[in-house]
Write a structure and sequence with these properties.
The protein has four helices and seven strands. The chain is of the alpha+beta class. It is globular.
Length: about 130
């Protein structure tokens, strides 16, 4: 019987890296399982981009990021220069950052481009 090869993301051995990248890879793997681009799985994470009508404050205090404790930000030009693709997806200002592959190396590259996380000053606890 033919079985589809497992294309999931690997577990990460480094506990410090896992704190930063396991969530990133978990999100990329979830996207990979649900969406495709040009017939191939789309390995990507969600992002919000400051565009007309959406500044950083509007994004951080908006419904999608309001419950996030922290965030990372980078100029779009730096993200593109590092070789990542940015795809407009869903509704404005949502984009997907395509990783290309669901690997520890790609997660580390993206984390290094994003730089340190910052506290979200608009953070609110999830309501039950």
């Amino acid at each position: 019987m033919w079985r589809r090869p497992r294309l999931g993301c690997p577990r990460l051995p480094d506990p410090w890296l896992a704190a930063d990248s396991r969530g990133l890879l978990r999100n990329a793997d979830a996207t990979r399982r649900r969406y495709s681009l040009s017939g191939s799985p789309l390995v990507a994470i969600s992002a919000e981009v400051t565009i007309e009508g959406w500044d950083v404050e509007a994004i951080l205090s908006g419904q999608r990021l309001l419950t996030r404790h922290s965030y990372a930000a980078v100029p779009v030009g730096e993200l593109l220069a590092a070789g990542f693709d940015l795809l407009p997806t869903f509704s404005v200002p949502h984009y997907s950052v395509a990783l290309g592959s669901c690997t520890d190396e790609q997660a580390k590259r993206l984390i290094s481009v994003l730089g340190p996380t910052r506290p979200n000053p608009y953070h609110e606890r999830r309501r039950s």
